[in-house]
Amino acid sequence: MLLTLTTTRPPATDLGYLLVKHPDRVHSFDVPTGTAYVMYPEATEDRCTAALLLDVDPQRLRGRQDAFELGQFVNDRPYAASSLLASALAKVFRSALRGASKDRPELVTTPLPLQIRVPVLRGSSELAAQLFEPLGWSVTATAIPLEPALGGDSRYVELELSGELTLSAALNHLYVLLPVLDDAKHYWVAPDEIEKLLRSGAGWLAGHPEKVLIARRYLAHKRALTTTALQQLEGEDAEEPPAEEDAELPVVRKQPLAEQRRDAVLAALAEAGATRVLDLGCGGGALLTALLKDRRYTEIVGTDVSARALEIAARKLRLDRLSERQRARLKLWQTALTYRDDRLRGYDAAVLMEVIEHVDPPRLPALESSVFGHARPGTVIVTTPNVEYNVNYEGLTGLRHSDHRFEWTRAEFADWAGRVASTYGYAVSLHPVGDDSAAGSPTQLALFSLEVTPA
């Protein structure tokens, strides 16, 4: 992935002093995800361009993406600018980011005519303008077309920025906003990311009209971290707490959608009277944890196509520390839902919680046949996003997750559920999950019950 930075303020080669990288050399740096290079395609008195090239080593990224099994091998990370490039920028231009220059200190606070180009970046043209224009940049974000045979535009843009800003401000804008546009982090987001965000956003983030979106995406949609960051940004942490007699009544905590979805599934399982349950596509084991705590479930099986997901689930469940009795209740199996697996037959209930939208539509009939036709549990519970509700998510462009192959409207989900029920001898009822709105609820749930045909 590539980023170029150009100035035309003579002598333009002073850019080398500000970046602490000599224009006559190619500089290389080892970074956690590969090798970063800094070079100067042009360096004259009138125009100087510094290029940051990140050569990603796929072997160093193994295991960093869990959305689907082939995601470790087939992805855009070596090519599209992201948090990988932002991290490399922070390492190789550390002094320039801080606004420090031993050789040209007077230029540190001097706005320079700058042009920045990022040839490939995941994101939309509209969002790029929303993020950079309030900071004084002129923005050109051109959608990159798909191959002519496919037609239309891809989800990538070529980004060009121009404006007069200090080099430090420009680099800090890029450090924060490249991951925001990509809306993904390649590393674990911990509380210390708040400090990085506030440090790099000093002087501009608090007044940015999209500060909530920026904080949410930069902090990987972790609500607690986002709330803390916004409070510190607004200075709320410095306010004195109200006197006890004037304090407001406690505000009831709003239950996250993931918890509401899990609770809806648990309620449906309890109503069905199931005791032997399959969690198909169990991922990291969020539902398995809740099932294991409830003694009514005598046999619990979690399956996933990803071996790594099952390893994460095993750690989360502390499988190695469970008592022998608890351990006997739980099994983790690797299997693909698009293939018939005799081990899955004979169970009371099966749950596909936020699973079907990760399956390519042409493969759905194979999943239907495997689950409803071959495994044939007495109850099947399916949850999936309602795409109509997406208008309520500020800043969301496209689907809710990069690995979603589709998201259905309420009518599309109802049609699919009705067809599957009719084909395989189930009765089906549909239920909303989460806050309802004019666009429906964020999650839709289908409860399938096997209809017993009299002998």
List the helices and strands and how they pair.
Elements: E1 2-7, H1 14-19, E2 27-31, E3 34-43, E4 48-56, H2 83-92, H3 94-98, H4 105-108, E5 112-122, H5 125-132, E6 138-145, E7 153-165, H6 167-182, H7 192-200, H8 211-218, H9 223-233, H10 257-272, E8 276-280, H11 286-293, E9 299-304, H12 307-316, H13 324-329, E10 330-334, E11 349-353, H14 364-375, E12 379-385, H15 410-424, E13 426-433, E14 443-450
Helix pairs in contact: 2-6, 6-8, 7-9, 8-9
Provide an overview of this structure.
This protein is of the alpha/beta class and 455 residues long. The chain folds into 2 domains: 2-187, 2-Layer Sandwich (c-terminal autoproteolytic domain of nucleoporin nup98), CATH 3.30.1610.20; 257-450, 3-Layer(aba) Sandwich (Rossmann fold), CATH 3.40.50. The chain is 32% helix and 23% strand. The chain has helices at residues 14-19, 83-92, 94-98, 105-108, 125-132, 167-182, 192-200, 211-218, 223-233, 257-272, 286-293, 307-316, 324-329, 364-375, 410-424; strands at residues 2-7, 27-31, 34-43, 48-56, 112-122, 138-145, 153-165, 276-280, 299-304, 330-334, 349-353, 379-385, 426-433, 443-450. Strands 2-3-4-1-5-7-6 form a 7-stranded antiparallel β-sheet. β11, α14 (364-375) and β12 form a beta-alpha-beta unit. α6 packs across α8 (211-218) and α8 crosses α9 (223-233). The chain starts with a strand and ends in a 5-residue tail after the last strand. One of its GO terms (molecular function) is RNA binding.
